[in-house]
């Protein structure tokens, strides 16, 4: 009889089995949804494959709607055909390694949203007490099971989710801003490369003229028609211009490597520019106060506003978290006398010391800091716009002044030419004036390059494209380029091309000077009055 009672007391009631079954159903899905570990190893072969496959991936990528504000619509293109400024911007946005690194922040932001929305886990507790001493006759093992849940964490959950979502929006806007800057940097690199190649072209044309004249002067000096002074002057002028050409060629090579770096292409990948790219310099920048209204749409300023809203929600969540921690629980227990009980409980913290006041103060101070940073960014953006507009206006004046200087130097070279032809001119001053004219032409192209760089800087400060007016179509030669066109002279290549009088009689100094000046200044000089 006693044995039967003890055996029946060890049988679990249906309520116990239901409680335990419910607990197993709650635990099993959580265990089944654990993510498995996926190892990733950095190997040289994988890195090399990632770097070497960039050119093939670039030509197959298509832009999405997100990049519509970053660059113009780009159709199919091939690197072998050369790139335009817009195509360079597209390639840079799609393949620049720094942008790929920044885009990884989106995954971090999405994970923060997931983390903010996760509900707190319930807690299960089980305890067992076996009779060990005293009057243990007829006693059994006592046990208890409880299930509890901290409901106080539900209060700030909505604010935390909104804060994480706004932070993710801020991350996306920051990435868009960096994409914009990289695209603009690619455009600027293309125009800089175009300007350097134009400078090299002008310098090489002048260098060819001086080299051909140097040969004539050497021959005239050997025949005794010119002195060593004229030969030294011609040699010095040619060497000086050659030094300038080599320095500019080095800058052009460095700029080409810089362009490949911005585009995310390896240095050994062949890359050329599309033919027909010109330097658009005919632009009148608006007033700075007219551009201030566009700053509201700048990606980074929008990102800072999103970050402020996110921090405001974080501050709200900290305030809502001041509610004392509250834990509700359901328990089942059975004592040693085989008496079972069901119960419910609530545990509440007494906010005597910790009322989350430290976190509240921290979140409020952080919100104030982000607000001040936004005001500072708006101030700096407006200053950048004003500085860029002022620089563009100064560059316009410098371009006009340089055009007048080129025109004056052109007239000066013509004057020296006449004096040398008459035999009363100084050959040293003549070569110096010719070199100064070539340098001024190069300086004019440099000012055009600086104007484009300043215009791109203004667009970066505004955060939007500013159309540049033109007086000629993009594919045509602009009046300024036509004015700077330096044509090669027709120089006699041998003694057979000289006149019979020159072949019959030796040349005197004045005749030799005529030959030198004719080869130097037979080039066509178009009018330098460029309409703007």
Automatic annotation (TrEMBL):
Coiled-coil portions: 186-223
Protein name: Outer membrane efflux protein MdtP
Keyword Coiled coil: yes
Disordered: region residues: 487-532
Polar residues: compositionally biased ranges: 491-502
Keywords associated with the record: Coiled coil
Species per Swiss-Prot/TrEMBL record: Stieleria magnilauensis
Highest taxon, organism lineage: Bacteria
SUPFAM superfamilies in the record: Outer membrane efflux proteins (OEP)
One Pfam short name: OEP
Entry similarity comment: Belongs to the outer membrane factor (OMF) (TC 1.B.17) family.
Biased composition (Low complexity): 519-532
């Amino acid at each position: 009889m006693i044995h039967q009672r003890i055996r029946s007391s060890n049988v679990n009631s249906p309520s116990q089995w239901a409680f335990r079954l419910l607990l197993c159903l709650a635990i099993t899905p959580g265990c089944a949804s654990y993510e498995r570990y996926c190892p990733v190893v950095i190997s040289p072969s994988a890195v090399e494959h990632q770097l070497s496959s960039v050119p093939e991936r670039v030509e197959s990528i298509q832009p999405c709607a997100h990049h519509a504000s970053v660059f113009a619509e780009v159709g199919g293109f091939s690197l072998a055909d050369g790139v335009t400024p817009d195509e360079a911007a597209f390639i840079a946005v799609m393949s620049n390694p720094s942008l790929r690194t920044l885009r990884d922040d989106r995954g971090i932001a999405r994970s923060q949203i997931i983390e903010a929305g996760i509900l707190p886990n319930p807690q299960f507790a089980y305890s067992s007490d076996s009779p060990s001493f005293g009057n243990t006759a007829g006693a059994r093992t006592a046990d208890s099971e409880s299930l509890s849940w901290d409901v106080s964490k539900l209060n700030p959950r909505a604010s935390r989710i909104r804060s994480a979502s706004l932070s993710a929006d801020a991350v996306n806007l920051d990435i868009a801003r960096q994409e914009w800057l990289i695209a603009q940097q690619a455009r600027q690199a293309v125009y800089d490369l175009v300007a350097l190649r134009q400078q090299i072209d002008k310098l090489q044309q002048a260098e060819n003229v001086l080299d051909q004249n140097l040969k004539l002067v050497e021959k005239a000096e050997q025949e005794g028609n010119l002195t060593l002074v004229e030969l030294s002057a011609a040699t010095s002028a040619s060497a000086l211009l050659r030094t300038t050409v080599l320095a500019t060629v080095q800058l052009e090579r460095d700029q080409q490597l810089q362009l490949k770096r911005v585009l995310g292409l390896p240095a050994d990948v062949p890359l050329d520019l599309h033919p027909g790219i010109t330097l658009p310099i005919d632009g009148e920048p608006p007033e700075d106060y007219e551009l201030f209204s566009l700053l509201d749409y700048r990606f980074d300023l929008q990102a800072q506003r999103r970050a402020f809203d996110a921090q405001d929600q974080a501050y709200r969540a900290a305030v809502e978290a001041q509610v004392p921690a509250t834990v509700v629980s359901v328990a089942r227990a059975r004592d040693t006398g085989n008496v079972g009980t069901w119960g419910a409980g609530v545990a509440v913290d007494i906010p005597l010391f910790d009322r989350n006041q430290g976190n509240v103060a921290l979140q409020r101070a952080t919100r104030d800091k982000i607000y001040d940073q936004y005001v500072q960014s708006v101030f700096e953006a407006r200053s950048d716009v004003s500085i860029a507009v002022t620089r563009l206006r100064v560059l316009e004046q410098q371009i006009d002044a340089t055009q007048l200087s080129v025109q004056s130097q052109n007239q000066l070279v013509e004057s020296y030419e006449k004096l040398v032809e008459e035999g009363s001119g100084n050959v040293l001053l003549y070569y110096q004036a010719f070199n100064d004219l070539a340098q001024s032409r190069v300086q004019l192209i440099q000012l055009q390059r600086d104007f484009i760089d300043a215009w791109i800087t203004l667009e970066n400060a505004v955060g939007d494209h500013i159309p540049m007016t033109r007086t000629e179509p993009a594919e045509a030669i602009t009046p300024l380029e036509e004015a700077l066109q330096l044509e090669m002279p027709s120089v006699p290549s041998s003694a057979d091309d000289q006149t019979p009088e020159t072949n019959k009689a030796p040349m005197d100094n004045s005749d030799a000077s005529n030959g030198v000046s004719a080869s130097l200044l037979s080039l066509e000089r178009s009018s330098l009055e460029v309409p703007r």
